[in-house]
Amino acid sequence: MATVAVTDATFDAEVVQSDIPVVVDFWAEWCGPCRMVGPVIEELANDYDGKAVVGKVNVDQHGDISMKYGVRNIPTILFLKGGEVVDKSVGAVPKNVLVEKLEALM
Hints:
This protein is of the alpha/beta class. The chain has helices at 11-16, 32-47, 63-68, 95-103, and strands at 4-5, 22-27, 53-58, 76-81, 84-90. The chain has a single domain, classed as 3-Layer(aba) Sandwich (Glutaredoxin), CATH 3.40.30. A hairpin with a 2-residue loop joins β4 and β5. It starts with a strand and ends with a helix.
């Protein structure tokens, strides 16, 4: 499964109301580190298909969500369970760091 493109309009349904863990990548097209993390996020979406929702929020297009969650640097990756942020990662990090954080939610 590919990542879910999350918008201001779909954030509640896709993320907050999810009954499985959620990983949300806050990114922008002009962000170099975001481009480095992008393929890793896609891998997570495939690896955890059916076990977790993996979404992406373009901060340039959906600033309301970014402001609500205090995203000031990108990439910021939030880990949510039960609609609550339980962990986060800021900056380009290796896949194993993200897997570890996601596995802790399972």
